[in-house]
Amino acid sequence: MEKKSTAKYTGAQILMKALKDEGVDTIFGYPGGAVLDVYNELPNTDIRHILVRQEQGAVHAADAYARVSGRTGTCLVTSGPGATNAVTGIASAYMDSIPVVIFTGQVPTPLIGNDAFQEVDIVGISRPCTKHNYLVKNVNDLARTIREAYYIAGSGRPGPVLVDIPKDVLRSAAPYSYQKDIQIRSYNPTYEPNIKQLQKVIDLIQAAKQPVIFTGGGVILSDASAELTRFARACRVPVTSSLMGLGAFPASDPLWLGMLGMHGTYRANLAVSSCDLLIGIGVRFDDRVTGKTDEFADKATIVHIDIDPTSIQKNVAVDVPIVGDCRITLKHLNKLAAAQKPLLDDKALKDRNKWFKQIIQWKEDNMMGYDQKKIIKPQYVVEKLFELTRGEAIITTEVGQNQMWAAQYYHFDKPRHFVTSGGLGVMGFGLPAAIGAQVACPDKTVINIAGDGSIQMNIQEMMTAVSNNLPVKIAILNNGYLGMVRQWQELFYDRRYSSTNMEAAPDFVKLAEAYGAVGLRATRPEEVGPVIREALATPKTVMIDFVVEREENVYPMVPAGSPITNMILV
Amino acid sequence: MDDQRHILSILVDNQPGVLSRIAGLFSGRGYNIESLCVAATTDPQISRLTMVTVGDDAILEQIKKQLNKLINVIKVITLTDTPFVQRELVLIKVRAKTEFRAEILRIVDIFRAKVVDVSLDHYTIEVTGTEEKLKAIITLLQPIGIKEIARTGAIALQRDVKPCKPEKKAD
């Protein structure tokens, strides 16, 4: 007979044991009074703790760690301000469906609700921006709750889960057991799609004259890239993606249309607007992609594959809804496609060739480009980064023009190489994200493409990078403006640049040096290449200040709420 | 389709915070809750929440999906799609001067209501029924003088879906 262990552990010890059992090797965190017991236990484990300089950074870093590694990220912060500082990070992970478990300290249970020092109702605050959250009031519930938290965060449509643990729970004792298999009565994500619906998709593909596949972050999250590539190539369907989906389909493939939406390519926007079949996979049809929804793909039969039923029919009317995991669904679709001999008859192939010709024509009509003259163009910097890293780097971005240029000019052939705050659009995301990505992939080159405005939102994380010997490269496209806001002011507010001038900025080279990093600067186009080469050859944290054209705009651009055919071109 | 009234019957884990999760979902997405009643079922770990909401078909579909997405929600049933029984309860404290006492009791009798508290100058009346019935008794008592009113939202249950077979007549 199996003997049940009667040994008791404190809540803090239980937390450590549970994290080990979950396979957690890294925690991003910041200590404080309510979590001192956990920090007291940390040195007894081999879990790596990355001390950030502000809690928001901890969540972004854990988020990026999850995106590039495919494992759930973990962070640990204290009660009150520690927890509230984490909220932006949590909301960003929620919008982008990233699996992160956030442990927050809480005041002792007898003090909850008494406005105790550093008390906030973080379970209440984070309710709308977490997949689920818990307040653990009894140490006997702690191990099971942690198990549930990781299970919920990483399964179905992933997302952040918050576990709030009062200080007295961390100090009281209970036995510990790890329950690998877990059942939550009301939580049963649908992974397997309805096969009959899938046959409809194959039929539609065979009949379509002008089909397009539109992918999103869900394809990357479910590791479906290989299946997607196989599917698109077999069915000869061109592919576009949302910002979050970049890298799911190789940008070097002739079927690649480029990104869709507000800053999408001319050909992608026109292709989707005139297609007769649109297959959305792991996307949520965000307004930045659809523009005016009434006119979005209005000639097309729309198929939507997503693990989350709420995403289907939310923004656009769908003809063939399919609830299921992207990878499993694509696997089935590939099987069904392979069983059709031939998959495409002569007429279909003829139609496809006509369609490709049209797409090539659109591409030639509006090649994405810029004119590099005396002043550095930001696009040139991104292209040089792409060229000199041979497209192998993990790119994180801040938010704004820098993010869009990174998306447009760094071409991603592989998934989990582009890390950006897509849904929430958090300025200050890129640097902590670069830290999380570098921790997860120490052998990779990690570059944060930043703006001079965004980088100043979480610039304190330079110290985290330096003190942990993380050789991340920060490429600031410094135009002395909040560039994207300025662009909107230029185009839609008659050039009234109200509060977007950021010329009053620190000397980023000196600032990098003050943090113990390497600071570099390029002010002329011919300096761009050498400076990037130097940064890549330096095994340290490097911040490069690229002084770029001040009023460069991101094109194409679709004004918010307009149909995506309504593009402002260069 | 135009906005319609929908009654949802939702089984949830009987845990702290579940109601606020549901209410938060509605406020966060701009959906309206017309009424909400919640109490534990015969299984003390499960509560039944009856909610009345308004919206077109697309909104209703989103509401149902979003509710189902909550980890603590076990089942969502749209009662308006199926036969159901629905009741509300109202307590009405009405002025009861001598000259009106008999009239009030007559109304109470007609509506199969009940006087549950009485004093020298008031009656408190308990009425259950459909929204229309409650509206009717309130309209009748209004001129007499309603002092206070307390009203629950709708509670509702699906009718048994098994068809009723007519009993065989004895020969």
Task: Provide structural commentary.
Chain A is of the alpha/beta class and 570 residues long. In chain A, 38% of the residues lie in helices and 16% in strands. Chain A has 21 helices and 20 strands. A 6-stranded parallel sheet of chain A has the order 3-2-4-5-7-6, with helices on both faces. In chain A, helix 16 links the parallel strand 15 (394-397) and strand 16. In chain A, helix 15 runs parallel beside helix 21. The longest helix of chain A has 20 residues, at 346-365. Chain A is globular, with a radius of gyration of 24 Å. The mean pLDDT of chain A is 97. In chain B, strand 2 (33-40) and strand 3 form a beta hairpin. Chain B has helices at 18-29, 57-69, 98-110, 131-145; strands spanning 4-13, 33-40, 46-55, 73-78, 84-95, 114-118, 122-129, 146-151, 155-158. In chain B, strands 5, 6, 7, 8 and 9 form a 5-stranded antiparallel sheet that branches. In chain B, strands 2-3-1-4 form a 4-stranded antiparallel sheet, covered by helices on one side. The model of chain B has no long low-confidence stretch (mean pLDDT 91). Chain B is elongated, with a radius of gyration of 20 Å. The relative contact order of chain B is 0.19. Helices cover 31% and strands 40% of the residues of chain B. By secondary structure, chain B is α+β, with helices and mostly antiparallel strands. In chain B, helix 3 (98-110) packs antiparallel against helix 4. Chain B starts with a strand and ends in a 13-residue tail after the last strand. Chain A binds chain B through residues 123-124, 127-128, 131-132, 135, 152, 184-187, 308-310, 313-314, and chain B through 12-13, 17, 20-21, 24-25, 28, 58, 61-62, 65-66, 68-75.
